[in-house]
Amino acid sequence: MRALTFVPGKQGTLQVGEVPDPVRRQGDLLVHGLALGICGTDRELTAAEYGWPPPGGERMVIGHESLGRVLQSPDGSAFSPGDLVVGVVRRPDPVPCGACARGEFDMCRNGQYTERGIKGLNGYGSELWTVEAGYAVRLDPSLESVGMLVEPTSVVAKAWEQIDRIGSRSWFKPHRLLVTGGGPIGLLAALLGRQRGLEVHVLDRSPVGELKSTLVHDLGGIFHSGSTLPDFGDDKPDIIIECTGVGELVMESMTSTSAVGMVCLTGLAPGGRTHRVDAGVINRDIVLENDVIFGTVNANLRHYRDAAAALAKADAEWLERLITRRVPLERALEAFERGKDVKVVIDLTADQFSS
Ligand SMILES: [Zn+2]
Predict the structure, then answer these.
(1) Which of 26, 85, 116, 229 has the most CB atoms lying inside 10 A of its own CB?
(2) How many angstroms does the Cα of residue 110 sit away from the middle of ligand 1?
(3) What is the pLDDT of residues 60-91, one digit of tens each?
(4) How many CB atoms lie within 10 A of CB 8?
(5) Residue 250 C-alpha to ligand 1 middle, in angstroms?
């Protein structure tokens, strides 16, 4: 079979090539790969910023935004051939820590977890892949062309779960949400915000009239073009979901929520940049408003199921528009070129019998 592989830690090693078919172990599903979403993490992996190969090899199959169709399933499993599925990315650490022991491996405490396509395990960027039945999630058949959005949505579903849990410490009935960053994570966070009936604002640098603004508009949200937070006057957002990792926006967000507000940080700021901030002002704002600033990353099985349910009830045409480019596996390297895309997807089924 063909797979998209790279050598972690070495730039310029990404290639499409023949690799041995995966070996299906007891309890595994054998899956025909349909598509693979590409995100910033994949670009960072191929730029050798991080990434760890499976033990005993140096090359690894890349890809964690999976979508496939079950070819073989274990007897008595909840899956059948033909089911549309995605695979969970992370696996618990082997110790395991208390969180991993309870299925909360997205909250791993010792960092020894592994991740498909990122850390110690082959990813999902191949024509065939296997996944333990316990780490697969079945999708509604209506998600056949957009199901690779489940993984990024799972990250957002976890963020919303955390917001709910933190909100439950007191009476909390949010009405206004601000999302900073109109990439896939930001737009999916906005989608889930709308599904919860919130007034949704999205800030992004792209101009009004281009795709991101119309996507926000068609969601029933309000788009703000710019690189600083909109002025909400006295009616500040109850929740800010920060998806840019831009230091200035991160700092500005911390003093820009309503009382008992929440800032959920999902973006990653590059290190080495300094910003002059008044720590006293930030401290006073957080204390006097009972604010919470928290970070979130990754997702467990529960969040994948929440994500699959959220996408199944979303407007299919809107989801389709998030995918701005589809490239066949043959030309997979083009998917890693940075452009004005929202989401680039590799079609694992195209040209399947050409080589
Ligand atoms: Zn752990």
Answers:
(1) 116
(2) 5
(3) 999 999 999 999 999 999 999 999 999 999 99
(4) 21
(5) 28
pLDDT of residue 274: 84
How many A from CA of 162 to the centre of ligand 1? 18
Which tens digits make up the pLDDT trace of 230-246?
999 999 999 999 999 99
| Assessment of whether the complete model's pTM goes beyond 0.90 | yes
Contact 89, 64 (CB under 8 A): yes
CA distances (Å), origin 176, targets 84, 190, 194, 221, 237: 35, 11, 10, 11, 5
- Rounded to the nearest whole angstrom, what is the distance from the C-alpha of residue 113 to the centroid of ligand 1? 6
Please give the Cα distance from 242 to 186 (Å, whole number). 8
Q: Which pairing describes strands 60-61 and 90-91: parallel, antiparallel, or unpaired?
A: unpaired
Neighbouring CB atoms inside 10 A of 351's CB total 13
Integer Cα distance of 117 and 108 in angstroms: 18
The CA 91 to ligand 1 mean position distance, Å, reads 9
Q: Name the token pair of 326.
A: 């589809």
317 C-beta neighbours (distance < 10 Å), count: 9
CA of 345 to the centre of ligand 1 (A): 31
How long, in residues, is the chain?
355
Other C-beta atoms lying within 10 Å of the C-beta of residue 76:
6
For β-strands 2-6 and 60-61, DSSP reports them as antiparallel
b/e per residue, 274-309, with b = 16+ CB within 10 A?
Answer: eeeeeeeebeebbeeeebbbeebebbbbebbbbbbb
Contact 289, 161 (CB under 8 A): no
